[in-house]
Automatic annotation (TrEMBL):
Signal peptide: none annotated. GO terms for molecular function: oxidoreductase activity. Pfam families: ArsC. PANTHER family: ARSENATE REDUCTASE (PTHR30041), ARSENATE REDUCTASE-RELATED (PTHR30041:SF5). This is Arsenate reductase. Belongs to the ArsC family. InterPro entries: Arsenate_reductase-like (IPR006660), Thioredoxin-like_sf (IPR036249). One of its GO terms (biological process) is response to arsenic-containing substance. Keywords: Arsenical resistance, Oxidoreductase.
Amino acid sequence: VEPCEELGLAEDKFTDDRLIDFMLQHPILINRPIVVTPLGTRLCRPSEVVLEILPDAQKGAFSKEDGEKV
């Protein structure tokens, strides 16, 4: 059983704080990673958003999940 079903998350009954607790307990609930660097914090969706907050310039090719080159 998926955590979403198991926890009853389809129901609109949880506070934002409680939903964050569920995400901390079950990271699979988060669609994309939250990345923290000295330059900031971003929810990296689409994945190339991470390039905005990398402390060093991109080095080499970057491929997205679908194989698209960035």
